[in-house]
Amino acid sequence: MIVPNLALRALRREWRLPELRTLIAALLLSVIALGAVGTLAARVQRAVLMSAAELIGGDLGIDAARPLPPDFVQQARALGLRTSKLASFPSVAFAHDRSQLLSVTAGDAAWPLRGKLLIAGRDGRSVASHAPHTGSVYLDHRALVALQLKPGERVQVGGMNLVVAGELEQQPGSSGLISLAPRAVMALTDAESAGLLGTGSRAHHQLLVAGDVSAVAAWRTWATAHLPNDAHLITPQEVQQRLAVAFDRAGTFLRLAALLAALLAGIAVALSAQRYARRKTDEIALLRAIGASSRYTFGNLAWSLAVPALLAALVGVGIALGLASIAFAYAHGLLPPSARNTPLPIGPAFAAAGVGLAVLIGFALPPLARLKSVPPIAVFRRSAATTGRRFDVLYALPVLVAIGLIALETGSWKLAGVLAACLAGAAVFTLVVTLAIMWLVRRYVARLHPALRLGASALTRRRALSLVQSCAIALGMTALLLLAVVAPALLDNWRQELPPDTPNWFVVNVQAAQRDGVRDALARLGATRYNEMPVAVGKLVTVNGVDVENQPFRGHDVKRDASQQLRLSWSPTLPPANRMIAGHWFTADPRTPQVSLDVAWIHRFDLKLGDTLGFLIGNQHIEARLTSIREVDWSRFNVNFFVLLDPAHGQTLPHTWIASFHLPPGHARALAAFSRDYPNLSLIDVDELLDRARQIVDQVTAAARWVLGFSLLAGALVLAAALTMSAAERRHEAALLRTLGARRAQLRMAALCEFGLLGAISGLTALLASAAAGAWLAHSVFRIRAFAPPWPPLIVAAAVAAVVVAMLGLVGTRRVLRTSPLRLLRR
Amino acid sequence: MDDSRMDDGNRTGMALISAQGLSKHVEGPTGRLDILDDVSLEVNAGETVAITGASGSGKTTLLGLLAGLDLPSTGGVSLDGHALNALDEEGRARLRLRLVGFVFQSFHLLPGLTAEENVLLPLELDGTPDATTRAGAALDAVGLTERAAHFPFQLSGGEQQRVAIARAFVHAPRILFADEPTGNLDHHSRDAIANLLFALNREHRTTLVLVTHDPALAARCARVHDLVDGHLQAHAQ
């Protein structure tokens, strides 16, 4: 084949061209950045999911009010999955003439499949265990205190005489809002033989499975299709909405960082391709003159780019996988042991190679496609190649690729559009500022020092080039400041959302008469940040006067959710971690009931402001008009509700109270006495969830440092590409000026002036654009409300970046100044 | 060659290059600029023709029109009986590949290819089977066998032009267009290149159209035309 031969031959020499190298380096960098982040994110996500699996005790589970048919287990085993059965139920235990209601979990020998059941032995040391042997039970500290028991003694549970085999310290599945204190774990066979799980019992049955990802996915599909009416899936993803928010944020953050690196690489590609195309003009003109067809000419060009590009993409995949492995090993300590051996997913790295090639094609094609219009006569007159410029629809391609890339990485067209608009805004702002400075230069240039005049007017002499350069450098610098200064500030804000005194306990079922006593008792135990809200339990029965059963909800799940028991509350003011997104807050003492809903409900049940919702609470029926839509930040660990009624109507309903508070670690044991004094209350510990959320923030922070490194490299490439764009003209001009008698100092001063102006324009744009984009990202994407752009470090970073541009420009001219003008002119 | 209209074209009694009423004008900042005005020229197979004129007189423009690199504003050119106006750019490219060789003032060698690979270029474009042998012979004919593996930047100006001449003759074109072939060379190289060009021209019996402002070089052609104010004036030799 002729075409590749010529292309390959030409490559040997062309590889020395800085444009081609920058082009390929930019591709390599974008593949590495996207690939490493994609691979790492997929691996960390899998690991974090596994760690979430530890919270439920398996990779996936089913919770049902009755024992599940045996084919659920058979199907799981057929797919090679491990299975475990357990049941949970309340039961009263007796010992030493004392009794205590316990929340009992009865598990088989395999339970837990994931996570740890930690037991403190008689020597006080923690050991990981499975469900106890027949005839024995584990009790938690509160149960031991309440029943005045020590390990080794006997306790009666469900009519069976069991030995306390150890103190239960931690068990999977204890972090959910349903868990009640104190707790006990016994063998499933004992519970079955004691008749605790028979018909009429209050037991909930669970089946947990664990194993290969694809087998779990297959079982999930099968199980979903065969799920009995009273059963539901328990998935790590759904185990806690609070953790889900952290997962989403973590993923979005990393992908955005990688995306900016890839977009920076795209700018470098566009600049290098422009320069490469200019270099190729003579060659294309010659080939056309000696009779080469356009197919041949462009085939040749395509091959000479495709060969190194494909090689670079493959090398990029390799490096990305390597880096992701190293990064994963580095973050290893943050992950639970079972999550450390997750396989390295290779899909994301190859997908990144595809995206990198798309970036290359998208950003390089417009300037290269212009070569198609190079007429053969340009072999005599170069100017013929540049005449007749017109708007080319191809120039929309990089914009489309950029928007597509943003949408792909962020999974949201809205986000893609707004981020693209931000970058476009930054570009337009740069153009306006550059044009304004050019106008000022033209107007006042005569008053400047001759050397400065030379430098300032260089901007206006190379008008188009200066505009392209300032835009590219400004966009590059915006992305850099966004990553280097704004992103760490965002992460800090995120971290501060979960300060050390974040509420880590919930107490539910507080009766009105107990409120003061509970608050005081907890305060004496060292609890802080006590925050309570009323809670009523009811059901949604009608929407706009039509029964829920007859609503055209999408899907069986939605219908089932709508008819489930719900907890609602009321508040005179908008509670913390809530944001109004539509409508207005309750008016004082409204005549008819009003309701405010979280936006998730609005989407799930397809509601709109003004709709009427009928609730049945106890035996009271309330018809409330939807007057506001809120967005609740579920990651804040506050007491929050999907449904809020206006206080005037809410307080007439039968209700109890729920409160959240912070109890310093180590004080939890003191709650045993508290729960004995208030046996009707349930305490819920969310410390473990909080720890997981904090771990995710730490993992993201660690990974963000890696991504930032790529972005810095990509930024350097943009700068290099922008500076090489004008290097040839600059060399020639400097040589000419030196021939005419300009001193080196004068040329240095001129270069400093020109690049100083470029740096100042870019720095200013980057400063404003990154602050604006950061504020917008914090508000709309990461939902971090208290974010303010970190102005002092931003200003310093923008100034440093501007100085670096000026200095690099100066360094770039050193070579020109050192060489004799004669040699330069001969080049 | 997939164009069936391009037969061998060895037609007797017909000019190999025929230009009738050529004019070329461009729009400049000060209005229309007439570069060529009603130029007609006939060149028979095997003839050597020089076009001379002052700088900016339109010599190169005329050469570009004759070679089909550009189209005239009015008038027409035919090469070996093929009217260039009737062909699209792809068709003209195919015709050039088959009929035409070029030598340029600034050599126009591809910087990424060695001397030999530059010479191979027209043969590869044409799919010639024994391309390497022929390229070797062409380089030998210009005395650069030793320099076959050198890249253009490793060659002197005179050597680069010799490679360009080897490239121009390697596929035995029937017409050679040369644009100031010695314009970028020193006095010594200039004579050597001119000698080489005419020797190879004689050997290959190529029709030569040469654009130059060097009277000595023009004088070596059988026919000389002067281009003055866009009009062609014949000189008797």
Strands, helices and their partners?
The complex is a heterodimer of chains A (827) and B (237).
Chain A: H1 2-14, H2 18-56, E1 60-64, H3 71-78, E2 82-95, E3 98-107, E4 117-120, E5 126-129, E6 136-140, H4 141-147, E7 154-157, E8 160-170, E9 183-187, H5 188-193, E10 204-210, H6 213-226, E11 231-234, H7 236-239, H8 241-289, H9 294-330, H10 347-369, H11 383-386, H12 397-410, H13 413-444, H14 450-461, H15 463-497, E12 505-510, H16 515-524, E13 528-543, E14 546-547, H17 555-562, E15 565-570, E16 578-583, E17 594-598, H18 599-605, E18 612-617, E19 620-632, E20 643-645, H19 647-650, E21 656-662, H20 671-677, E22 682-685, H21 687-725, H22 727-739, H23 744-781, H24 791-818, H25 821-826
Parallel strand pairs in A: 3-9, 6-8, 15-20, 17-19
Antiparallel strand pairs in A: 1-10, 1-11, 2-3, 2-7, 2-10, 4-5, 4-8, 6-9, 7-8, 12-21, 12-22, 13-14, 13-15, 13-18, 13-21, 16-19, 17-20, 18-19
Helix pairs in contact in A: 1-9, 2-8, 2-9, 2-10, 2-21, 4-20, 8-10, 8-12, 8-15, 8-21, 9-10, 10-12, 12-13, 13-14, 13-15, 13-23, 14-23, 15-21, 15-23, 15-24, 22-24, 23-24
Chain B: E1 17-28, E2 31-43, E3 48-52, H1 59-66, E4 74-79, E5 82-83, H2 89-99, E6 100-103, H3 115-126, H4 131-141, H5 157-169, E7 175-179, H6 187-204, E8 207-211, H7 215-218, E9 223-228, E10 231-235
Parallel strand pairs in B: 3-8, 3-9, 6-7, 7-8
Antiparallel strand pairs in B: 1-2, 1-4, 4-5, 9-10
Helix pairs in contact in B: 3-4, 3-5, 4-5, 5-6
Molecular structure report:
The complex is a heterodimer of chains A (827) and B (237). Chain A has 827 residues and is an alpha+beta fold. Helices cover 55% and strands 18% of the residues of chain A. The longest helix of chain A has 49 residues. Chain A starts with a helix and ends with a helix. Chain B has a single domain, classed as Rossmann fold, CATH 3.40.50. Helix content of chain B is 32%, strand content 27%. Chain B is built from 7 helices and 10 strands. Chain B is globular. The longest helix of chain B is centred in the last third of the chain and has 18 residues. The chains are: A alpha+beta (827), B alpha/beta (237). Chains A and B meet through helix 1 and helix 8 of A and helix 1, helix 2, strand 6 and helix 3 of B.
